[in-house]
Amino acid sequence: MTSKFIPYAQYVSYQPEEMLQRSKDYYDELRRRRSIRTFSDKRVDKEIIENCIRTAGTAPSGANLQPWHFVAVNNKELKKEIRLAAEKEEYEFYTRRASDEWLADLQPFETNEKKPFLEEAPWLIAIFEKRYGINPDGSKKKHYYTSESVGIACGLLISAIHHSGLASLTHTPSPMGFLNTILDRPSNEKPFLLLVVGYPAEGINIPDIKRKGINEIATFLLD
Ligand SMILES: Cc1cc2nc3c(=O)[nH]c(=O)nc-3n(C[C@H](O)[C@H](O)[C@H](O)COP(=O)(O)O)c2cc1C
């Protein structure tokens, strides 16, 4: 296949001072993001969700194969079905599957098998990782670095949701195979995350957690 190259005309450059300010502003905006677990039922326009998913779809991916699919649900019956199936798995997790260490690590969040937010929040976005593609003749098409690619797309999605003025929860009821059944997705797609999206319910509290500092998360090797 011949590749075609075009000028990178959309690149925007800034003066160093402006770059510094922009990097600070972006950090300040994203550090305000927090996961919430109690949502208002206030409706959110489909167009906002669509734009956030468009943003996620700009993510880099292995060989640009874009191995993701987003299912955005605000249908009440489907949300209820998802809640019931998730709570069933979560009950197993909290009572049997989770190790003592895992349960201890979850204690600060006071989470349990009850997931009312899956019905209360206006939108659930199920993100699927396409482990492989399907060629027109039905054979398998190899995909590369699918979890890295989908993880990056989810990061962009979460930041786009936050940037739009909405809140989210990254939810991973484990295992999530029920999402294929309820949302009618094919077997080459593996549920990756279930993102709960909406407005925070009034007056909610969030866990008082701390971020690691720059020196804990990064090493700079200088000249
Ligand atoms: C991959 C992943 C899975 C998560 N799964 C759950 C989950 O199933 N239930 C939940 O309440 N929070 C879940 N979380 C949210 C984390 O607890 C939360 O992101 C973390 O405590 C940091 O808090 P913050 O998002 O408010 O910064 C998950 C987060 C990630 C990144």
Please specify the SSE layout and strand pairing.
Layout: H1 16-30, H2 46-56, E1 68-73, H3 76-97, H4 100-106, H5 117-120, E2 123-130, E3 132-134, E4 140-142, H6 146-163, E5 167-171, H7 178-183, E6 189-198, H8 214-217
Antiparallel strand pairs: 1-2, 2-6, 3-4, 5-6
Helix pairs in contact: 2-6
The structure holds flavin mononucleotide.
Rounded mean pLDDT is: 97
Report Rg.
Answer: 20 Å
| SSE string | HHEHHHEEEHEHEH
Which fold does the CATH topology refer to?
NADH Oxidase
Ligands and ions found: flavin mononucleotide
Give the spatial strand order of the biggest sheet.
1-2-6-5
Short description:
The protein has 8 helices and 6 strands.
Task: Give an overview in words.
- The protein is globular, with a radius of gyration of 20 Å.
- It is an alpha+beta fold.
- Helix content is 39%, strand content 16%.
- It has eight helices and six strands; from the N terminus they run ααβαααβββαβαβα.
- The longest helix has 22 residues, at 76-97.
- It has a single domain (42-202), classed as NADH Oxidase (3-Layer(aba) Sandwich), CATH 3.40.109.
- Bound molecules: flavin mononucleotide (FMN).
- The site of flavin mononucleotide has 10 residues, from strand 5.
